[in-house]
Amino acid sequence: MTSPLRTGLSRRTLLSLSGLGAGAFALAACGGPTVGGDSSNDKAKEVDFEGVKPAKKIDFWSTHPGGAKEIETKLIKDFTDKTGIEVNLVTGGQNYEEIAQRFQTAQAANSGLPAVVVLSDVWWFRYFMNGNIIPLDNLLKQLDFQLDDYRETLVEDYQYDGKQWAMPYGRSTPLFYYNRDHFKAAGLEDRAPKTWDEFAEWSKKLTEADTPFMYPDLAGYAGWTLQNVLWGRGAEYSHEWDLKLTEQKSVEAFQWVQDSVHKEKWGQVASSDSADSFAGGVCSATIASTGSLVGILEAAKFDVGVGFLPAGPVDGPVCPTGGAGLGIPAAIKPEEQLAAAEFIKFMGEPENTAQFSAATGYMPNRKSSDMSAIIKETPQIETAIKQLEHTRKQDYARVYLPGADQEIAKAVASILNDKADVKQSLEGLQKNLQGIYDKDVKPKIEKQK
Amino acid sequence: MSVSDQAAPASPPAARGAAEGTPARRRRFSARSRRDFWVFLAFAAPNLILIALFTYRPLLTNLNYSLLDWTLGSTTAQFIGLQNYIEFFTSEGGRRTMLITLIFTVATVGGSMVLGLLFAVAMNRRLPGRTVARTAIFAPYVLSGVGVGLVWLFIFDPNFGALAWVLRQVALTSPQWVNDPNWALVMVIIVYVWKNLGYCAIVYLGGLQSLPTEVLQAAELDGAGPVRRFWSIALPLLSPTTFFLLITTILNSLQAFDIIRIMTPAGRGTNVMIFEVYLQAFGGYSRAGYSAAIAVILFVFLLLITVIQIRYVEKKVHYA
Amino acid sequence: MSTATASHSPSSAAGNRAPQGPVGGRSPQRYRHRNTGPFSKQNLVGTLVGGYLPLIMATLVVALPLLWMVISSFKSPHELVTQDLVVWPEDPSLANYRTAMNTVPIPRFFLNSVIVTVIGSVIKIVLAIFTAYALVFVRFPFKRVIFVLILVALMVPPQVAILPNYVLIAQLGGVNTYWGIIVPGLGTAFGTFLLRQQFLSIPPSILEAATLDGAGHWKSLWRVVVPISVPSIATVALVTIVTEWNDYIWPLIIVTDSHMMTLPVGLTALANSEGNTGSGWGILMAGAVLIIIPILVVFAMLQRYIVSGLTQGSVTG
């Protein structure tokens, strides 16, 4: 008796299968990239919107940052009432990776693209490189965006090559959170430490929790928030496109972080959102996004204090901005692009960005936004807003190199979790990032010029 | 009568008899073969066309992409021949991915089959209430990987998780389940086995219940104890079931995705091949060509494993 | 090949009598004294330790995490993120569910999921039955090649199909439609494979009898083959329903209109893209409950068939 499976896979059958493989290329052409084409095709053309009428209905892809679905729905309704343009709110994904996956899929299919899409700090640049999004300058002028009322550091993040590629939306910065009860019990002042050295000193008295300090988790936040330590010590991931990871100052900065965990042992690394560990009383202090403020206040059973990120021995701003922005795809009709710009402008109006901020805990984009009612309800948010004036644009290496954030997180993980040699890890990281730059970025930005 | 004929349960069909094509039937059906031609097309063509369109066509497209240096989202790409394949087999990242895939597959397949067999033995008694246990143990198999991943992530949390609390009660510290790449792999293996062992248990139970009573009784009369009866008689008789499970669980393990992605989104230490396919294309690197190459390699692995298993294991099945 | 005890089909396989406790059986006497129940005096301890302990352990291992999920969904934030395990919420509240319901149109997601799952599963099962029947009982050249191609399709990782299928479906106008969600998954390799193996075990004599009675393929399929293959078809049904219900990435990609979203996709709107501090975990657990419970109910209804389909001989047990 033979089993059906056995006779099923005879040699002849396998041969006929391999024959099938040979026909692969004939069938596979549609929908993919043009092979061997000149990649300068990727450059997005600037569009003149003179005389264009805005579309009546557009799609808006969002990740609903900070649980923003409700407030987005409300603002969209206001927008439709005002302009008559309908906006279809689409859940583009659960996080920035999912919305990026979806955007790139639609891009490859050249179909189903939205008019407005949420772009995170580490994703927009590759859309720019691929010509997937348009520069907004003409639109900003035509629709009179009042750029001088926007907070400069938030707007600057989306500038490259002298053009504006997106506008801020759901922007956040890291914030220093501390447990006031623990600080009191330790006899410390009721404020965030001014410098990391000061906190290292304080940490000796902070014995209430499992650990005085919790570093943010590696997957989401390490690359972002550690810029704070680097900058405070005069180091950086990169200066524009020059990688600086193997310089002495960078090695020292990372060595300092490693020592705080393994030698002096006043810090640990969170395995999930460090805001959770903080709210649950596992640590006395942590660094987390301003976007976590509302959630922390809700979950914590103690008095929550917030402050600026601690500085280092070197002067200058030590807080990076972060979060998302709104961009407009290149491969859609000018009518849709114009309507999209109107929508972006509306979402950025002082009172609307204030409402958004109140609902989510993200930063208001406009200087003239009236935040007094919100500050009255949640006084801690004032600190976060004030810190905005002391922020610095993120290093190119983290936000502009595709996959750099992942590579940085991997290197930091081996330094902090596996106690790997700092210099060696950073050398490896620098090599990987340089490889990404040489291969995926340099040829493209040179052709763009 | 061959034993395998008896022992294989309905759905674990590997060793079922091939009734097809016996001379008698062939003769009787031959007169109608022209009509059969059209009947076959009417019955099978819709499904076959769908499979061709939505499984084979993408596979071929993918084969094409795998030869390109293509950044996802870009409208242009360069033909680079087998470079992506060479990179996967020679780079440290590629080798690590293969090692992780091997560990994950061996551990999950071994774990769910051994535990599944143990539970099947435990359930193979006429005890009131065993239906409840049987239903319960199979239940995780039907649940959403996303939901299951979330629930377990909360349980494994080193600070607030129920597991950490239990460990603290016996004066242990919870491992860093997510931060430590080795523990992360252990974690997803545990959850994966939890979700899938019920499937093995149920299939084994079916195998056990269709074992020929006479053989076991004869052995018992010869004085063989329960352990010996299990090892020397039941287990060999179960080899067709084991064979079926081996194929299906290996195929499933190599395609395990949801749980791993939800529990360890960064994929540090848990980037098995299928997850690496996703990470390379969509997880930040946007390397669509390289991702496609890994997908093709994975497909070839799956194909090879199946062919080898069929060629090798079947001899044993036959022998039994 | 067949003997008196060889089963004609799983459902008639009760004749293929299962031994009462052959492998794990502790008491050899049980073979001789079949009527000695598991609760006889000398057996009671053995039954409890050897029989019930593993069963209870197995049940707990499965049930506890799910129970934990349900309990957690009623907790307030500070009961979730705390190191002192709170087993029972002090003030169980539906707040997490309310937030979930207010944030996204859950009834609509639910309806979409049901529509997609029901239509998709029914078509898939029918296609699988037809294809498997054709492969086994209808004469056709290159049947083996076709079968192997179906088998190989099982090995194509689903992730590779996303981009090419999106391109195709989008060109056909399938974005935001039920058919756009359903169609790419309709071709069924697994169901065909499983049912083919089951059909092969049907003795040709039964079919021949039907043919002599003048029944064509249509009749033999529905009157003979399908009725005696119910457990296997139920197994295919369960696996198909489960796959359709839990599918995530494809519906995420192909649907942009929130009125067309299925439950697993729609619930992602609940998760905060910058962490889930505070009520986040509770809302996520509530979301997990909403995805998991319906499929558990379906499973509980079908499990009698499934388990018997998989375990064959135990239909009457």
From TrEMBL, chain A:
Protein name as it appears in the record: sn-glycerol 3-phosphate transport system substrate-binding protein
Spans through the membrane: none
Annotated organism of origin: Helcobacillus massiliensis
Pfam families per record: SBP_bac_8
Record key words, sorted: Signal
Superkingdom of this protein's organism: Bacteria
InterPro entries: Bact_solute-bd_prot1, SBP, TAT_signal
Signal peptide residues on this chain, from the entry's feature table: 1-28
From TrEMBL, chain B:
Region annotation Disordered: where it falls in the sequence: 1-26
Subcellular location: Cell membrane
Membrane topology type: Multi-pass membrane protein
Skewed-composition ranges (Low complexity): 7-19
InterPro entries associated with the record: ABC_transporter_permease, MetI-like, MetI-like_sf
The UniProt record lists the keyword Signal: no
Gene Ontology biological process: transmembrane transport
Protein's UniProt keywords contain Transport: yes
GO annotations of cellular component type: plasma membrane
Record keywords, A-Z: Cell membrane, Membrane, Transmembrane, Transmembrane helix, Transport
Residues in ABC transmembrane type-1 domain copies: 98-309
Residue ranges crossing the lipid bilayer per the database entry: 37-56, 98-123, 135-155, 183-208, 229-251, 288-308
Family indicated by similarity: Belongs to the binding-protein-dependent transport system permease family.
PANTHER family, per the entry: ABC TRANSPORTER PERMEASE PROTEIN, INNER MEMBRANE ABC TRANSPORTER PERMEASE PROTEIN YCJO
UniProt-recorded name of the protein: sn-glycerol 3-phosphate transport system permease protein
Lineage: Bacteria, Bacillati, Actinomycetota, Actinomycetes, Micrococcales
From TrEMBL, chain C:
Keyword Membrane among record annotations: yes
Membrane topology according to the record: Multi-pass membrane protein
Keywords: Cell membrane, Membrane, Transmembrane, Transmembrane helix, Transport
The ABC transmembrane type-1 domain, residue ranges: 110-302
Residue intervals passing through the bilayer: 44-71, 109-138, 145-166, 178-195, 221-242, 248-271, 283-302
Subcellular localization(s) per the UniProt record: Cell membrane
Bias (Low complexity): 1-14
Gene Ontology CC, one term: plasma membrane
GO BP: any one term: transmembrane transport
Location of region: Disordered: 1-38
Family membership noted in the UniProt record: Belongs to the binding-protein-dependent transport system permease family.
PANTHER family in UniProt: ABC TRANSPORTER PERMEASE PROTEIN MG189-RELATED-RELATED (PTHR43744), SN-GLYCEROL-3-PHOSPHATE TRANSPORT INTEGRAL MEMBRANE PROTEIN ABC TRANSPORTER UGPE-RELATED (PTHR43744:SF13)
The name this protein goes by in its record: sn-glycerol 3-phosphate transport system permease protein
Organism this protein belongs to: Helcobacillus massiliensis
Lineage: Bacteria, Bacillati, Actinomycetota, Actinomycetes, Micrococcales
